[in-house]
Structures are given as C-alpha cells and as structure tokens.
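Structure tokens please, single chain.
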Amino acid sequence: MIEGLQSALDPHGPDARVIAQIWWVLLCGAIVVFALVMALATWAAFGRGNRGWLAGHAAVVTGGVAVPALVLFVLLIYTFVAAARMHAEHREAALRIEVVGEQWWWRVHYLDDDGARDFATANEIRIPVGASVELKLVSPDVLHSLWVPSLAGKLDLIPGKDNRLRLRADGAGVHRGQCAEYCGGPHAQMALMVVAEEPEAFERWRARQRASSTQPADESFLAHCASCHTVRGTEALGTLGPDLTHVGSRLSLGAGILPNNTGTLAAWIGSNQHLKPGNLMPEFGTELSGAQLTALAAYLQSLR
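Here you go.
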C-alpha cells in the first residue's frame, strides 16, 4: 500500500504532490526505457531477419549516446520546472516554528509574530489546515534531516546553520515525520508527528499550550525529573529534556515510539533504555516503587 502516515506516494500537501508527481514521471520514463532496451536485446538474441544494424556505428551512437542524453535532458528540464512550482505556490508564512534536532528527539518552539519563542512542546507539531507554515530547522550538535513525506520534502539540520522548510496541509490528519540523516544512537527511533487541524481547533490548542500548568508538581517529579524537564507554573525548570507542561495532550512518547497513556508513561519512566536503547534519559525503575511510578505517570498524563 502507498497510503499511510509516512508515505511520499500519499501526498496531503502541495509540495508533497509535486514530489510524488516527479517520482511517477521518472518511474514511467525508466519503465519505458527499460522495456525498449529489453525488447531490442531480446530481438538481437533470439529474433529473425537482419539484426546486424544493431551493432553498427550509427545504432550504437544513436541508442547508446544520443537517445539516453535526450531522455535524461528532457527529464531534467521537467524536474527543474516541476520543482520551481513548489516555490511559486508558497504564500507568506502564517505560522513559524523552530524545530531543534536533539539526541534523539525533536524540541519544538512556536514563535510569535516578532520571532520570539511563544511556547514549547516536543516531538509533535500542530498546524492549521491550509496555512503555509515555515519550519526553522536547527541542530546544536550533530546532523539531522527532517522528512515528513506526505507533506513536504526533506531538509537537513546542520549545526551552525539555520535552514527553512515550508509545508502546508490540505486537510485535517496526522502525518509521521522521521529523521532521515543517520545521527548515531537510536536514530531510527526519532520520529515526529505533524497534526493538521482545522483553524478553529488549532487556535484552541494553541491557547491551551500557552497556558502554564495549574496543578502542583508531583513530589516524585520534583525529586527526580525537575532538573531536566520544565512544567511551566511549577518549580520544574529543567531544559535538558523535553518541556512537559502539556505532555498529556501529545499523541506519542519517546519521539513517536509509544502511544501516550498512563501505562506507557510509567513504562517509559521505569524502563526507557529497554524501549529505546541509547537514549539520554536515565531509568527510574529501581528508584521508584510501583505505586510511585503509577502516581507519577498519572500526574504527567493529567498535564493537558
């Protein structure tokens, strides 16, 4: 099947449609050329009649040089023209988001109209349907590459350089992105969910994300988690790990490897190295009792 959360052949945005169209045209061109070559080779090996001209100078130059050069030139020009449409179709960005490639998860900062950071989330981007969104791609240490196949092409995150990626979703839905540049460790488990929502639903979500937590922090959270994680509105102000202010509202945990619920939260806190070997978060399965793990997971799940 070509449909799914992460398929370049199931486009849901203008850039993804152009990329899929280019792929189909190049595939069809390759099939036609391959079929022609195989037909001539079969005739040369098993056919009847005069086949000597296939080894002649004119046939070799025409079939081996001129025709391939012409076909490649035509496909190259088509690709350039089609790719140029992606730039022409983009409107002024209605939303700007900074995406930071960490080891091995995605830090996400929504930016205000002045380019300052508005609020933070992690491993999930929500965008309004039909709006042109600009992603500012940043990496503090190693190379990453962000690819959301059903919405746009891929673009690298390079330390010391800010890249910009534009995307737009045609309709509501969930699209899976992936780090497409080997970055060491659990690189293959570094996913990103892009959730496209109707503008009204997106604005409600954004208003909730801007708000600080109204709940007092769990004691176990303050003792074991607050040095690395932030929950706005509490004493937890750590910046090493993801901002957890509204972690309960996210679709997944561990950068896309687990569904988000109380049970998986407890499993992640207690045994994340088993679930995602090599990630930089320590395990707390031996430091917290079962009851403490359950209470801590319930607290985090309540942060919506």
